[in-house]
Automatic annotation (TrEMBL), chain A:
Name the record gives this protein: Putative sodium-bile acid cotransporter
CDD domains the UniProt entry points to: bHLH_AtIBH1_like (cd11444)
Organism the protein comes from: Hibiscus syriacus (Rose of Sharon)
Biological process annotations from GO: regulation of DNA-templated transcription
GO cellular component: nucleus
Subcellular localization: Nucleus
Keyword entries, A-Z: Nucleus, Transcription, Transcription regulation
InterPro entries (alphabetical): bHLH_AtIBH1-like, IBH1-like, IBH1_N
Domain IBH1-like N-terminal residues, every copy: 9-76
Keyword Membrane: no
From TrEMBL, chain B:
Composition-biased stretches (Polar residues): 1-10, 165-176
Gene3D superfamilies with a match to the protein in the record: Helix-loop-helix DNA-binding domain
Listed name of the protein: Basic helix-loop-helix DNA-binding superfamily protein isoform 2
Keyword Transcription regulation listed: yes
Gene Ontology CC: one annotated term: nucleus
This protein's record includes keyword Electron transport: no
GO MF entries: DNA binding; DNA-binding transcription factor activity; protein dimerization activity
Keywords: DNA-binding, Nucleus, Transcription, Transcription regulation
Species: Hibiscus syriacus
Subcellular location: Nucleus
Pfam families in alphabetical order: HLH
Amino acid sequence: MDLQNLNPSSLKSRFTARFLRALTEINAPKTISSSSPREIFQRYRRIKVAADKSMAYSVRSRRIWSRATLWRLRTRSRSRRLVSFGRRASVKTRTTASHGKENKEHHGAVLGVQAEELRELVPGGEAMDLCNLLDETAHYIKCLTTQVQVMRTIANLYSIE
Amino acid sequence: MGTWDNSMDQSDPFESALSSMVSSPAASNVPVSGENVMMRELIGKLGNICSSGDASCYTTPLNSPPRFDLSMVNLPNRSSLAAPFSADPGFAERAARFSCFSSSGNSGGFNDPLMDSFKLSGNQPINVDGSQSNKNSGSDKKNSGVSRSSSPENAESGVSKDESSVFQQIQSQNDAGTRKRKSTPREKPKEIPSPAADDAKVASENEESNSKRSRRNGAPAGNGNAKGSNDGNEKQRKENSKLLEPPKDYIHVRARRGQATDSHSLAERVRREKISERMKFLQDLVPGCNKVTGKAVMLDEIINYVQSLQRQVEFLSMKLATVNPRMDVNMEALLSKDMFQSRGQLPHGIYSIDSSPAFPYGYQPQQGLLPLTNGIPNTTETPFSMKTQGFLLPSVDGFTDAHPQVGPMWEDDLQSIVQMGFAQNQPQSYQGSIPTGQVKLEL
């Protein structure tokens, strides 16, 4: 028996608990299932946010990416468009600044290009050096796989009809 | 008296006191016992000078007058002390050398012309005191206890030693102190050993770092140091085989053969090793990366994987949004079963499901309770049996290629377990009111 499964406070269990809680909150108000695309889209967004948020909370800000995610979510919830726009703009400027891909590849910092891409992917990665970035990426990957597993299971359960 | 006058001219406070001091012993040809008394007098007066004089030069915290008294009292060779004493010219200089010695260990603040004149004069037993006080000051930062304990024997031997030897002692003590100090940072960060490390190859690195150190440490002790510092460094090199700049908290790395040994490249190397270590770890995480070599390709793979995972999350959340949510509690129970299954093994407790609403899975986790029952509408009377048939899961989407081993395992086990569980639970009507205390998840 894999001991990791039995750990009641493992990442998976924490995430599952939170996510399910969030899901019930999202789904509870609607007793009738609405099928309008717009509502579905809204729900999708909320669910996605809930997933990210519950994962970040499960990690409990031990990691830079979780802190960045939480911060991002909070600021987004406050002033939605403005902040996200600003952040996206800042990220875009960074990427355009490093647009000389071939040059970067042949330079001493061979990993410059990929590091930039990775920084975009991992939340909060912009401010990290490569060493920490790889650390965070490893943990982020682990959490993402957990998330995917749980969500897939839930989706499967829901889709049984 | 000529030299006396010269030295006297250079510092006024000294002049008056010394004149008074010198005149008194010179006047009386005292016996040996009396000399001791007068020596104590002198020392006391010197101490007064020190305390009343310029603080920077004389009154370091180590230069307290009582110490002067003690040192003089402990002198074995009082007669030799008396000799220069009566031959007063050099006395003032040597007496003032007390303070020189003690301050030189600190910061060389005593760079006065007095110092020069003192150095020029020959060494005599005052070195004993000077050495003692100097040792105390020099090692004050490090292990003062050692110096004080060793000072008596130094006092004995210091009588006949000359100035350079004194400095050598000081330097060796300094080195001993630094050696002690360095040994602690050496133990700490041993987690970054270079695989191809070789002790012999470190010699060059040590020389360089030692030379840097001697350059730094050489300043306060004066010019008699070169020999002493080299000796100390020799000892250090033999003892410590990996050293970097001592006072800073660097990670200690062994220089490999043929590689540059300055601090920048060493730090670079440490960084690179860390990065490659993490790349290896990531290689294990990302499936299908075992054959890939090279950082760039690895990173590309990692990026692709992260992107695919993120896309999966989005897809699944979309799916969850579209799926008609039937918030049955049993779903969550099933979920827990699925969580059991995700590693592909059956939990023991699965067979002990009885008709009670609780699902004792045989595990008693303290946490992981699903507070779902609160939010669940009680109208979920949907017959569970309906779910059993439809429970055969098709694989969700095309993303399972990323997790080939997980998917099939889920489905097989899920089938068997769920059917069992559902069969048992069918007769019940779930009110959705399963007491929270009994729904336990083991994930």
